[in-house]
Design goal:
single chain; Alpha-Beta Plaits; alpha+beta; 4-stranded antiparallel sheet; about 90 residues
């Protein structure tokens, strides 16, 4: 398994709209991506949020992750993307 770890900044004036878009648009789209295993979107703190999405392969994780600088929903900007092999889970 491979993880796509994505960090975003969230405009505080758009936080409610961004959370709604996350639940109604982003999560359904990501969970339908090929190789999707599981996804975790962490609560935003001080305008920053992180997601950890697991895929079967690194290639699938790379295809599904947004590029740095993208704005997947209004008020949200991707500030970092990295990929890591999952070495253990419980």
């Amino acid at each position: 398994m491979h993880a796509a770890i994505v960090t975003v900044s969230i405009d505080p004036t758009q936080a409610d709209r961004a959370e709604k878009a996350l639940r109604e648009e982003v999560i359904p789209m990501v969970s339908a991506a090929p190789g999707f295993v599981a996804g975790y979107w962490l609560e935003a703190a001080e305008g920053q949020a992180t997601s950890l999405v697991l895929f079967d392969t690194e290639q699938q994780a790379r295809r599904a992750a947004p590029p740095v600088g993208a704005s997947p929903t209004p008020g949200v900007t991707v500030t970092g993307v990295r990929f890591q092999l999952v070495t253990a889970s419980a």
